[in-house]
Amino acid sequence: MPGQDNPLLQSLEQYWETLRNAQRLPARTDLSPSKIDHALPYAFILQRVAPGIGRFRVAGQKIHDLLKMDARGMPLSVLFTPDAREQAQQLLESAYMSPAIVSIPLVSAGSMLRSEIKGTMLLLPMRDNADRTTRMLGALVCDDYASTRARRFSIPADARVRHDPIGLQLAATQMIPRAPTQRPDALRPALKLVVNNG
Asked: What's the pTM value of the predicted model, to 2 decimals?
């Protein structure tokens, strides 16, 4: 499963699990940065502004290094190549609407002047102050690289995407309607969705 062998992502998910209970997701105000200081350079918080669209409220230094700019206020899709953005939006929406833990394998193509890098993005849904599922705690870890240019990621065609439904029925998640033709499971056939209910 993507990301499950990464200690940083494991520890971030374990911390998130300590904050949630059977009926409620963690709230943004529950987070204590000192408890996840090792993950902060890789972490981010998104705010859902439309179906499939989340904007960075907070982003760590590693996200800044990948984009070569301040990510705050930018959509999550800025991290993806144009041909991967629709898939990324569908996966983000599924994390909000299920709600579900989602982990996505990523690759940034190489060239003669820079190497290919692989990574994993973890998405962990959260509540806002009005108990709506409009926040997302996430992190992106990738291979070490050296580049003066921004990197963008695609989702490999044979990717195994982790999608763990949390089992909550939150009416508040429906306050922003989803796109009429987009379902959380409407992923292209080449994208393998792996659901772990264990």
From this structure: 0.82
